[in-house]
Amino acid sequence: MDLSDNILVHAFHAFTYPVAIMDSQFTIVYVNESWCRLSNQFGPSSNVEWIGYNYYQTKSSSDYDSGEFKASVIQGLTKLKNGLLANFIMEYPSHVDGSAWYEMKIDRFQYKDGSYFIVSHQDVSERKNLERENQRLTRVDALTNIANRRRFDEFLDYEWHHCRRNQHPISLAIVDIDGLKAINDSFGHDVGDSCLKQVAQKMKQCTGRASDICARLGNDEFVALWGNTSRNQSLKLTHSLLNEINSVPISVLDGDDVGNLEVSIGLCSITPTDNDFTSFLSMSDSLMYQAKQSGKNRINVWSK
After folding, report:
1. How far apart are CA 276 and CA 283, in angstroms?
2. Is residue 153 classed exposed, middle or buried when 0-12, 13-18 and 19+ CB atoms within 10 A define those classes?
3. 19 near 120, Cβ under 8 Å?
4. Cα torsion at 195, 199, 202, 204 (round to 10°)?
5. Which of 25, 50, 119, 141 has its CA 20 to 30 A from that of 244?
6. Structure pTM?
7. Is residue 294 located within the same domain as residue 145?
8. Could you tell me if residue 67 is left (phi over 0), alpha (psi between -120 and 50 degrees) or otherwise beta?
9. Is 28 a member of any domain?
10. Angle CA 112–116–117, to nearest 5
11. Measuring CA to CA, which residue among 181, 163, 176, 230 is closest to residue 203?
12. Is residue 133 part of a domain?
């Protein structure tokens, strides 16, 4: 491919992201200066070494495109070659440390009587970080900064099936703050919000393992889930949680304390035998309401 010294060549080298041109067999015939500067991310380190580099057939063990990444690229190139794709786009983490993310895009174009491909690698780290942060925010309760109902449902689905496969017990405590409406009505929502935040912090302290989670389900309702945790183990954890919450003072805006927080808890432990955990949730919720009807600030427990 003959690239004359004209405005298009200067424009090609002016791109701030790496760009290369490949022939119909995916052999690189030209690269821009940005490609050479960032080549430590991708493979050979100079312009000369890149010319003749074949995306499709390279077999050196030192190639950047080894393993799963190479398999994905080869699959995309094959579809391009067979006319099944108009272009190929793939996002991937940096091969150096994984902290940066890139988007590789390959498009076909015709030049004179030949078919060529142009491949670019653009840094999309900022967008990926924003996407991850947005995803995190959709799964976190804004007030208490613990998991929300969406995240809890995802976690329960995974942990339930994990415990079922391994025949491990799983335990669930639904925690409802007693008298939160009265606190809001009497002392204002700032005091009520403070109570919610403090309950959330106490729950985080007792759900520290990878198989645990605490979440805010609704206004005054929280949940703690412990994977691979028996009835006796979860009951001990729940008693400790109740004691910790009972030690939290209800502090009004003038600095006075008007009592301590109280909660009603329904605790259910089971070793899953099927894929349906709706009854597990319903039982825990019913146990919590029974605890309220029995005098509040107590644990009502069931196990199977």
Report:
1. 13
2. middle
3. yes
4. -130
5. 141
6. 0.62
7. yes
8. left
9. yes
10. 150
11. 176
12. no
